[in-house]
Design brief:
235 residues, mainly alpha, Glycerol uptake facilitator protein, cell membrane, MIP, membrane
């Protein structure tokens, strides 16, 4: 249960910090943090929670990461579904907190006809810069694949584990710098689900892509690392 609570709180912090920065701080006139600030916020949430609770649960905070670590032989399949449930629960609870806070401002309403409403992900007319479904799928697949390669490499028994959290947090920052204009950046099905549930409409109908592409990318990364990159004891 401690592992599941760690995943719950870690994913809560990721969504609260990352999506919260997008909702409340990105567009403040003259003082807004913009895409760069939001990218950094997502990276910092993972970095800080990796050191806070990573030693308890492994610090996944993302269903795609759990699938990727399983494919790479680093995670027991019996823990997969409990982890995903804990991650999604943490993300949805964080989104509910963000919705409650946002509701405290006069005139607040989620316009689910606009791209990025309530920090949701999307493609086509719901992509921040109008990218197609194929572009969205490709970027989510590729970026999640490399994210898992970085995670698997940084946490390898031969790597310097003390700096794993830094590498992973910076990787997530870079991922957001690349893909916010394309999909508003997911690479995390739990993060996408939490925002889509409150946004409803087309972002909820497009949610399938933000489960399928990241999980496939993560599984491919796990297979690649296990078979092509990971050193065996005999090597």
């Amino acid at each position: 249960m401690k592992k599941l609570f760690a995943e719950f709180f870690g994913t809560y912090w990721l969504v609260f910090g990352g999506c919260g920065s997008a909702l409340f701080a990105a567009g403040i006139p003259e003082l807004g943090i913009g895409f760069t600030g939001v990218s950094l916020a997502f990276g910092l949430t993972v970095l800080t929670m990796a050191y806070a609770v990573g030693h308890i649960s492994g610090g996944h905070f993302n269903p795609a990461v759990s699938f990727g670590l399983w494919a790479g032989g680093r995670f027991d399949i019996k823990d997969l579904i409990p982890y995903v449930i804990a991650q999604c629960s943490g993300a949805i609870t964080a989104a509910a907190t963000l919705f409650f806070i946002a509701s405290g401002k006069a005139g607040f309403a989620i316009d689910n006809t606009k791209a990025g409403a309530f920090a949701s992900n999307g493609y086509g007319s719901f992509s921040p810069d109008g990218f197609s479904m194929a572009s969205a799928f490709t970027v989510e697949f590729v970026l999640t694949m490399f994210f898992l390669l970085i995670i698997l490499g940084a946490t390898d028994k031969l790597a310097n584990g003390k700096f794993a959290g830094v590498a992973i947090g910076l990787a997530l920052t870079l991922i957001h710098l690349i893909s916010i204009p394309i999909t508003n950046t997911s690479v995390n099905p739990a993060r996408s689900t939490s925002q889509a549930l409150f946004t409803q409409g087309e972002p909820l109908l497009q949610l399938w892509l933000f489960w399928l592409a990241p999980i496939l990318g993560a599984i491919v990364a796990g297979i690649i690392y296990k078979n092509l990159l990971q050193k065996n004891d005999s090597e």
